[in-house]
Write a structure and sequence with these properties.
Layout (H helix, E strand, L loop, with lengths): L4 E5 L25 E5 L5 H10 L19 H10 L9 H4 L4 E2 L10 E4 L5 E7 L2 E4 L9 E4 L6 E6 L2
Antiparallel strand pairs: 1-2, 3-8, 4-5, 4-8, 5-6, 6-7
């Protein structure tokens, strides 16, 4: 099970909610497991570590296609920050939008990655307190925190780690 998710038994009419066994087992069946993922607004340790690494780059310039260490684009910064904590991600935001677990906005936690625009053209790390840490253009613009409510439309939220 992924960190930040909770498995809850599915109850059916007449069910007591007990599976008749203590603990968890994998029977190997391909049918319904009787559980669903419920995501809580709880950060994963790896995501918090990646956020901490990313913010060391505050003030460095945005550069389209930048992969550091002197300038970054949005996805280059995300890839580098998570890579430093052992999570290997694809290079571009459109690919980064397809890995990890999709998280609902109600479960957003610091260290989660927010992908913006319908085309997944921008990406940043949620820092908590309504702030996103990101590298955004134009070229030369400093990497910074920005209020989520001033950011472009959200396509998806991803949790890595």
């Amino acid at each position: 099970m992924a960190a930040g998710s909770v498995v809850v038994p599915t109850l059916t009419a007449g069910s007591s909610g007990s599976s008749g066994s203590s603990g968890s087992s994998d029977s190997g069946s391909s049918g319904s497991s009787g559980s669903v993922d419920i995501f809580l607004p709880v950060s994963t340790p790896a995501a918090m570590a990646a956020l901490n690494v990313a913010v060391t780059q505050i003030g460095k310039p945005y550069k389209w296609g930048g992969t550091g260490p002197n300038a970054w684009d949005c996805s280059g910064l995300i890839q580098w920050a998570f890579g430093t904590v052992g999570i290997n991600l694809p290079r571009v935001s459109q690919q980064q939008a397809r890995v990890g677990k999709a998280i609902p906005l109600a479960a957003l936690a610091p260290g989660d990655v927010i992908v913006f625009y319908r085309n997944a053209g921008h990406i940043g790390i949620y820092a908590g307190g309504g702030q996103v840490f990101h590298a955004g253009g134009p070229n030369g613009h400093p990497i910074k925190f920005q209020a989520l409510n001033t950011m472009p439309p959200i396509k998806t939220i991803r949790r890595y780690g």
